[in-house]
Amino acid sequence: MSDLPGPGPRILLVEDEPANRALVRAILDRTSRLALREAVLHEAATIAEARSLLATCPIDIVLVDVRLPDGNGLDLATELKARGVADPARVVIVSASVLPAERQNALATGADAFLPKPIDAAELADLLVRLSA
């Protein structure tokens, strides 16, 4: 998608912390980026919830935290990138662990990007626009 009016990306946020989910919602609600104004945000607090949503909803971009109550978000990212679907979701690893080795491990899953915590609103918006183009 471009930065033109129209349907926005369908985003799945897999994050167990309510405050972090609220932050992403607020960033999307307040964005001035045309490509994101019509974004649809789905939320999951666990990997199990994410899998359930992915089985029933078309998703363009998955933002997945590394540490989740029922497993490692890196495993979910690897699973998503290994699915043999024609139009796979773009995957972004979100983590407070920003050491170079941690970032490399995250990207080794096949993820499309790495987003450090705390999340910067402009960085998230830029990334979502780029990935939905």
Would you kindly provide a written description of the structure presented here, covering whatever features stand out?
The protein is α/β, with parallel strands linked by helices and 133 residues long. 42% of the residues lie in helices and 22% in strands. The protein has 6 helices and 7 strands, in the order E-H-H-E-H-E-E-E-H-E-H-E-H. It has helices spanning 18-30, 34-37, 47-56, 73-82, 100-107, 121-131, and strands spanning 10-14, 40-44, 61-65, 67-68, 71-72, 90-95, 113-116. It has a 5-stranded parallel β-sheet with strand order 2-1-3-6-7, with helices on both faces. The longest helix is centred in the N-terminal third of the chain and has 13 residues, at 18-30. The N and C termini lie close together (4 Å). The model is unreliable at 1-6 (pLDDT under 50).
> What is the terminal-to-terminal distance?
4 Å
Order of helices and strands: EHHEHEEEHEHEH
If helices are DSSP runs of H or I spanning 4 or more residues, what is the number of helices? 6
The biggest beta sheet is recorded as: 5 strands, parallel
Structural class: alpha/beta
Topology, number of strands: 7
Strand order within the widest sheet? 2-1-3-6-7
**Percent range of helical residues:** 40-55%
Taking all residues together, what is the mean pLDDT?
91
Low-confidence runs: 1-6
Return Rg in Å. 14 Å
Strand content: 15-25%
Q: What is the molecular shape? A: globular
